[in-house]
Specification:
Helix 3 crosses helix 12. This protein has a single domain (4-274), classed as Aldolase class I (TIM Barrel, Alpha-Beta Barrel), CATH 3.20.20. Helix content is 44%, strand content 15%. The protein is an alpha/beta fold. The chain is globular, with a radius of gyration of 18 Å. It has an eight-stranded parallel β-barrel with strand order 1-2-3-4-5-6-7-8, surrounded by six helices. It has twelve helices and eight strands. The active site is at residue 96. InterPro entries: Aldolase_TIM, OMPdecase_AS, OMPdecase_type-2, OMPdeCOase_dom, RibuloseP-bd_barrel.
């Protein structure tokens, strides 16, 4: 299979640099007039697939909102991933997994093995057991043509306690993660397969991103307070690598498919204006 970075670059160029989340939290299900159960979840996701498949570069289901419904919810997640991928849309599964050894390898089997019912084009991962703990996921991704987005500098205020901490070499933890990603991506064209997650609301972060050579997922836009214009401050001359991510800003326009599609179009226009 073609490398994830190459597939993502092509999708961003052809459809625009935009990731849309599928976050079926209870309040949103209610706002759409749906029941907070597996049946409501299924209807919600069918509407999202109809609105987004083939129209955006990446769709990002948040696994937790499916898992809360047990096996029936995970079944809906499997179906949603399959429908999106069958339509040619890249799926970034937001699971933020992070563990060591055989457990990390099991997560890789679950989400990055092409034969798994949850197989996705990429996943999010937490490196705070050490970047090296992610090697089973990274290695499986590189072997199977998938990607991993590593949390680096997130927009939640609590993250600063760890991510902005400075090590003995005077490098922040966030920058250390960026440096490690850059090593994995070195020399890969047109773009590496391992990305970083950097919140759109972190402001001028002083991160050195010039060597990362991988996609930079920017959540926190829209309902969380981030604006497209903020991306220049956060990412500087690395904006060509940025994949802006929206969820509630677009999902809140539902449940009509035509309204969701219109919201996607407006958001893409804003993003393209800057990036």
């Amino acid at each position: 299979m073609e490398r994830f970075g190459a597939r993502l670059r092509s999708a961003m160029e052809n459809l625009g640099p935009l990731c849309v989340g599928i976050d079926p939290h209870p309040q949103l299900l209610t706002a759409w007039g749906l029941s907070d159960d597996a049946a409501g979840l299924r209807k919600f996701c069918e509407t999202c697939v109809s609105s987004m498949a083939g129209r955006v570069a990446v769709v990002k289901p948040q696994s937790a909102f499916f898992e809360r419904h047990g096996a029936a919810g995970v079944s809906v997640l499997e179906s949603t991933i399959r429908q999106l991928r069958d339509a040619g849309t890249l799926v970034l599964l937001d699971v933020k997994r992070g563990d060591i050894g055989s457990t990390a390898a099991a997560y890789a089997d679950a989400y990055l093995d092409p034969t798994s019912p949850l197989a996705s084009d990429a996943i999010t991962a937490s490196p705070y057991l050490g970047f090296g703990s992610l090697r089973p996921m990274i290695d499986r991704a590189l072997d199977s043509g998938a990607g991993v987005f590593v949390l680096a500098l997130t927009s939640n205020p609590e993250g600063a306690q760890v991510q902005r901490a400075v090590g003995p070499d005077k490098t922040t933890v966030a920058q250390a993660m960026i440096n490690a990603i850059a090593q994995v991506n070195e020399g890969v064209a047109p773009m590496g397969d391992i990305g970083a997650v950097i919140g759109a609301t972190v402001g001028r972060s002083a991160l050195e991103l010039s060597t990362v050579n991988g996609p930079l997922l920017a959540p926190g836009l829209g309902a969380q307070g981030g604006k497209v214009d903020d991306l220049v401050d956060v990412f500087g001359d690395a904006t060509r690598l940025v994949l802006p991510s929206y969820s509630r800003e677009i999902l809140g326009r539902g449940p009509r498919v035509e309204d969701l599609r219109a919201a996607v179009t407006r958001t893409l226009d804003d993003v393209r204006r800057l990036l």
